[in-house]
From TrEMBL:
Keywords from the named record: Cell membrane, Membrane, Transmembrane, Transmembrane helix
Domain Tyrosine-protein kinase G-rich, residue spans: 265-338
GO cellular component: plasma membrane
Localization per record: Cell membrane
Record protein name field: Lipopolysaccharide biosynthesis protein
Native organism: Arcticibacterium luteifluviistationis
Transmembrane segments: 26-45, 316-336
Membrane topology: Multi-pass membrane protein
């Protein structure tokens, strides 16, 4: 016997659908209105957030390929090169966003004082608790840290750890691979503090890169500075001793052999200390010039601006989304009540 082929096509009885909608219209309207009211309430009650943005333009070398900041070799014709060509000790720009995601950055941020939109000065950790955590009580357990405190590691409590996780979603950095422009975005409940933190983040990043780039040459400058100070003292001492001896034995009638030997010895020591001092001073000045050359230069392309319009919540989108969700949910309800008899 031949088996009948089953027709898997699903069709909708639109006449029955319209009848069902007409019959259950008050259910649809009621659910949709409830969802819309809920969305409107959320949009009105949700905390306002403001976004401030700043842009930094690192120094790029000219045609000769040299750069005071050592950042030029990082930008290629075909795009952004992640490797380093000449200045292998320079920090890679693609790692800049990671600098402002680091724990030391956030710990430093918590200690800063900012001025809010009403003109009050407030520490950021206090602002965070007041505006972002909405003055919630702090559990003593969240403040506990481990008793062991080994060197070279950072110890934070659970409260700080949770705050840092939240801030990682509020403070972000990105870099344009074609132009090399660094963008910093900060989202905060206070527009003035959002702009201030953007500025602080830009300053922190540029200072971090400059310190990293010049750390070795700074150590050299400090070392030579100490050597120059010591050599200067030796030179001045030998110069004074030589001058004093010349004053004592300057008379032509005094011609002692021992005096001539002493005079030659002092003269030799003076020349040696003079030569040493001048050589170290020369290297010291060269190191300071090199430090200036190695220091990266950053230009503020777009300074942080205090936003006047909030970025969140988007009330219109929330209300429209709630209305749509209410309609979809109400149709699901009436389909379930009908036993899915609309489908054939």
């Amino acid at each position: 016997m031949e088996e009948k082929e089953h027709d898997d096509t699903i069709s909708i009885d639109f006449k029955a659908l319209f009848n069902l909608v007409g019959k259950e219209k008050w259910v649809i309207i009621g659910i949709t209105v409830l969802f819309t009211i809920g969305g409107a309430w959320y949009g009105l009650a949700a905390r306002e957030e403001f976004v401030s943005e700043g842009k930094i333009m690192p120094e790029i070398s000219g045609a000769g390929g040299s750069s005071l900041g050592g950042l030029a070799n990082l930008v290629g014709i075909g795009g952004f090169e992640l490797g380093l060509k000449n200045n292998t000790d320079a920090i890679r720009p693609d790692l800049y966003p990671d600098v402002i995601k680091s724990t030391p950055f956030f710990l430093n941020l918590f200690e800063q004082k900012f001025v809010d939109k009403i003109g009050d000065s407030i520490r950021f950790d206090e602002f965070f608790n007041k505006k972002i955590e909405e003055s919630k009580s702090i559990d003593k357990e969240d403040l506990r840290i481990f008793e062991g405190q080994p060197s070279g590691v950072v110890l934070v409590n659970r409260l700080t750890e949770d705050r840092i996780k939240d801030l990682k979603g509020r403070i972000s950095g990105s870099i344009d691979k074609q132009s090399g422009v660094i963008s910093i975005l900060v989202k905060m409940p206070d527009p003035v503090i959002a702009a201030e933190i953007t500025k602080f983040t830009m300053n922190y990043l540029t200072a971090y890169v400059a310190d990293y780039r010049t750390e070795k040459i700074k150590q050299e400058v400090d070392f030579l500075g100490r050597k120059v100070a010591f050599a200067k003292g030796e030179f001045y001492r030998d110069q004074s001793r030589k001058a004093s001896y010349e004053d004592i034995y300057a008379a032509p009638t005094i011609r002692l052999q021992s005096a001539d030997v002493r005079r030659e010895r002092l003269q030799s020591e003076y020349k040696l200390s003079s030569s040493m001092y001048n050589e170290l001073l020369k290297k010291y000045e060269e190191a300071k010039i090199k430090l200036q050359q190695q220091t990266p230069v950053f230009k503020i392309l777009e300074p942080p601006v205090v936003p006047t319009q909030k970025s969140e919540p988007k009330k219109v989108i929330i209300i429209l989304g709630s209305l749509l969700a209410g309609m979809v949910f109400s149709f699901i309800i009436i389909f379930i009540k009908s036993g899915f008899n609309l489908f054939k």
